[in-house]
Amino acid sequence: MEENTVKILSKTQKNMLLFRVYFLTSLFTFTGGIAMLSTLKREICDKYQLMDEKDFYNYAAISQTLPGVIGINNACFVGKKINGYSGMITAAFSVILPAFVFMLVATLLYQLLPKDGPIYFALAAIRAISAAFIFSAALTIARLNLKSVVNIVIAVICFVGIIFALLGALELIIIAILIGLVMGFLENRKKSV
Asked: Domain-by-domain residue ranges, the chain?
């Protein structure tokens, strides 16, 4: 769609578009929220131009730090930004629906799935593709958010801390918040002097 066409969409049309984008992305992304980001960004920011790429990745970063499911957190933020509370509810419902149906079917059919053979190898291939999606999303988020030396150092320290199990995610988030607060305090103090 052209940018001019997108701006004249009604609330109902925006909700239908949000439903379709989040439903299809959730349906075909097997590892969840982080892997969904590149596809969602392409659809929401590039193809339909419903929001700015910077805002999208800000919401993506917030979605990852808040408790809960990344995909649902992202759907709520983006849906609300695009179409208010109805957009938030529509996007959240559409991102949950495929997972709910898959889990229901998987629970019912789990005992019937073979533990080896073609289905096992197909699932192994899906895991490999999922890793590629996650890696792509991580690179994109890093490219957009790691613009200062301090941010790069924090990211490297957190990466090493997670890889070598030196600290948990909660501790790393608290440390990053404290560093951000100190940096903000020092910046404000420097401006006032």
From this structure: 3-111
